[in-house]
Design a protein that fits this description.
Blueprint (H helix, E strand, L loop, with lengths): L40 H15 L5 H14 L5 H7 L6 H9 L7 H17 L5 H12 L8 H19 L5 H18 L1 H9 L1
Helix pairs in contact: 1-4, 1-5, 1-9, 2-3, 3-4, 5-6, 5-8, 6-7, 7-8
Amino acid sequence: MRGEPVRTRSKNDTDPAASFDIPVWWRHRPSSGPIHDVGDPRFAREAHVMMAALRYRLVDRAAAMLWADAWIQQLAEPPPELFDVSDPRSPLLQALIDAIAALIEVPPPRDHFAVTAAVLHASLARGKVTVEHAARTLVVERGIEGVDLPDDMIGAIDHIDYGFDLAASGTHGTIAAVRDELLAFTQPFAEAWAAELARVTAA
């Protein structure tokens, strides 16, 4: 099916919150574009980053609420979904992500990969995700149809993934070294999305 991620092997996958199957959130929203056009191109970029930041624990629900409140203050006619995000009674984290997703267009797969890599960089640097989770996520993401990364980037991701296996088994290398490789690989993505990351994490 178009847009379905490729499932890869997972090691010691005992934490439900660390699932390596990335939910393709846009399958639950209309494919014809945003329900409400907020009229500011910055919003779509920030919203995409916010969804990934929630998914990979870079920010919490409170940060999402503050971010939504800031946009509500800026927009002349805030869409209803933003009030859903800012509502402290929202029961589920996924409900917040779905509410944000309803406001933006479906991103190209490569943009989705770039945002995921950027957020993983920040989350890994702050200790919000494990090295294993970050490595496995990149493997899954690069397998999504349409991402079409160049061969050298695919090779780098596979090298990181294999390096984690070797380090985790005690065969060769260290987890710390794999972490450094992950941070180096994702650094350019974090730099490309630095403004959005700063806005989302400052909320």
